[in-house]
Amino acid sequence: MELSDKYMFKHKGCYFVTDLATPEYIDSLEDFEIRDSDVFLVTFPKSGTIWTQNILSLIYHEGHRNGTEDTDLLDRVPWLECNIRNRDYVKRASPRLFASHMPYYLMPKELRNGRAKIIYVARNPKDVLVSYYHFSKVSVVLEDVEDFDIFMERFLTGKGAQLHMATVTRNIFCHIPLVEQLCPFLSKDGVTQVTQALEIMHLDYCNAFFMEMCGPKDVASAKCVSKFIMGCS
Questions:
Q1: pTM for this structure?
Q2: What is the CATH number of the domain that holds 96?
Q3: By the 8 A CB rule, do 69 and 58 touch?
Q4: Which end of the chain is more exposed for a tag (fewer CB within 10 A), N or C?
Q5: Omega before 95 within 30 of 0, i.e. cis
Q6: How far is CA 28 from the centre of its chain?
Q7: Could you tell me which residues come within 8 angstroms of residue 173 by beta carbon, excluding any fewer than 6 positions away?
Q8: Out of 11, 61, 64, 101, which one is annotated catalytic?
Q9: Of all helices (H) and strands (E), which one includes residue 179?
Q10: Which residue range(s) make up the domain with 106?
Q11: Active site residue 134
Q12: Does the residue 83 lie in any domain?
């Protein structure tokens, strides 16, 4: 069952909600000017984004002591790729807070080059799947798919979600050197220990996840998929 163009469009390997973005706007973000004080909250959909947006907003606005409790979350931490209210992000006062579901390769080039701060929130893919399924039933911009098996098939093949979960995971772990930028307080040995731990934890998790999804009869394929995500030979 293919996606309806009414709800989603595919651009550069990533699916976007038709009512919230355009290919032209996504492309324009390549040259979006980044400030060192900017903070980007990056997540896969249904991974705790709003929860973290609120925490981030409370931290930066000191528990709303400056009167921001009456400001909508969409204005406090707006979406980079979905400028729903047509705000001029360039004129926003620093520090600017942004949220995004976009993959690494579609982010502004200055952000990819190390400017600003990035907070990445990940969630168990099985929980993401279930949450996304129920969310699609109440969202007016997403297609309501009654059959959970069809929804899961789309999820696992990257149709209907922002991007294939496996691709998102691979994007993260293919850029493990970024840990050196994200953890400047660590010594060289400390950074090495963190990256090695991430690789081991991720590979073990992927093996377990895909073996569960594929079933015991296809364990070899599940392990192969896990290695592909990690970029292993």
A1: 0.69
A2: 3.40.50.300
A3: no
A4: C
A5: yes
A6: 19
A7: 198, 199, 202, 229, 230, 231
A8: 101
A9: helix 179-182
A10: 8-122
A11: no
A12: yes
